[in-house]
Amino acid sequence: MARRLNPILPLSGLTEHRGGAAVSRSKRMGSARSGRGGGGGAGKLTPAEEELLHRQALAMAIHQHLDAGGSMSRRIDAGGSMSRRIGPGSTSSRRRGDLPDSVTGAKAVQIVLENLETKKIVLVHGEGFGAWCWYKTISLLEEAGLDPIALDLTGSGIDNADTNSIATLADYSKPLIDYLNKLPENEKVILVGHSCGGASVSYALEQCPQKISKAVFLTATMVKDGQRPFDVFSEELASADVFLQESQLLIYGNGKDKPPTGLMFDKQQIKGLYFNTSPSKDTVLAAVSMRPIPLAPIMEKLSLTPENYGTVPRYFIQTLDDRMLSPDVQEKLVRENPPDGIFKIKGGDHCPFFSKPQSLNKILLEIAQIQAPTTLLPSKAQTEAIEVTEGKTEEVKTEKSS
């Protein structure tokens, strides 16, 4: 396992992107250097190449296809800044190197749409991200015939709320809860939460369990009752008290004499912690699009009950090259709060929607097709863990506490 970078380092600002102005599109780079980037073996880019990547990332980040509710449109047309949609195995609109993935060339997942409980998949971003980060996942899920939608949580993406004003997890998760409450009476969705977005998914399970068919935690903070999302990281960062006293990542939006309101990693920390195997252009996209992380939601203890939270099947997707939420911490999460299924992505960093999009897509399609059990599975002695590796899928058995 790669060593984690120490996040308690001096803070330097990130350029914030609000997605308002038009940005001219540039030609795709023809060199191999534009294909796979972000990994340790990538060569150093020239200033001209860095500028081109930056312009490409800005073009991707323009939210021309966002509706009035702050969600990313499911339709990405050829005239938009995200180029044409592609499916597994297609190379018509992107070079294969642009989508480095552990299942490239693998047999596509066969999906029978009429057997699905729901086709609607709601994608919930993690800390600092927005709906923009799911652009590859949206394209691949659409190609399979599903109905994905990505939401901006409060103060994220192009939501214009001030990050420093977010005081509770309820405030932060309001766009998700509002969306679920507006669904037709008998309609359900599959929720997918990334990183600290797992807290918003857990909160939604408690608030609207009747609207959720399945919950998927993508290397996410799958907390227990009475636990804070920050507690998941506390062993590697420090205790909350120490972190709040010593961290130079903190933002004091209401003044130094008031409690901190947010935090932000600098550009190099983000690259090392989140994107160690992601393509360079996605790293640049994140660098210009990520916003400060509201602190209150990740410091709040969740109240989760068996009657609500406990009635919805949960699945956890582990990423085995993750430096932000290490494989050891992920294993601890599934041990202490056992889900109904475990999936693993080899070679995936903390953001597999960038680093391993087709592996992630394959797993989401498999989860979508899992039939609802007559009873939930927490008492089962074992659960299947599907490990996605190069060109094949292997089933392994993982012991699960009763």
Automatic annotation (TrEMBL):
It holds the Pfam family Abhydrolase_6. Residues 121-359 form the AB hydrolase-1 domain. Residues 1-45, 77-101 are annotated as: Disordered. GO terms for molecular function: methyl indole-3-acetate esterase activity; methyl jasmonate esterase activity; methyl salicylate esterase activity. This is AB hydrolase-1 domain-containing protein. The keyword Flavoprotein does not apply. Keywords: Hydrolase. It comes from the Eukaryota. The keyword rRNA-binding does not apply. GO terms for biological process: jasmonic acid metabolic process; salicylic acid metabolic process. InterPro entries: AB_hydrolase_1, AB_hydrolase_fold, MES/HNL. PANTHER family: METHYLESTERASE 14, CHLOROPLASTIC-RELATED (PTHR10992:SF785), METHYLESTERASE FAMILY MEMBER (PTHR10992). Gene3D superfamilies: alpha/beta hydrolase.
